[in-house]
Amino acid sequence: MKKTLTILSLAVLALVGLSACATPAAAPSISVAPDTVIVDVRTAAEYTGGHLQDAINIDVQSADFDTLISALPTEGDYIIYCASGNRSAVAVQRMTDLGFTSLTDAGGVTDAATATGLAVVVD
Predict the structure, then answer these.
(1) DSSP character string of 76-92
(2) Which of 44, 50, 76, 81 has the greatest CB tally within 10 Å of its CB?
């Protein structure tokens, strides 16, 4: 009986292990339409080190953030990200205060890449 239980336990573990390997990667959870603007709100040096494909860089900590971001249409769709999610939250609040209505805070760059399915690129 003990030998049978051991064999059954091993069989169950093998099946669980195989099914975990066969599980496809999760689909991106943030949809990126062709006209969606991706905004990296980190510093220029951080952006240069690696950013989401097609992202523009407007540093939320720069003195001219409000001026630069206000040059964009307020009715557009925007995905905002930074390094960890702190600055993106600040940027989303400031953009909301400036009249932007369709904003998605994607958090940090790694989470943003996973959620959007966009590659991290280096220029």
Answers:
(1) SEEEEEESSSHHHHHHH
(2) 81
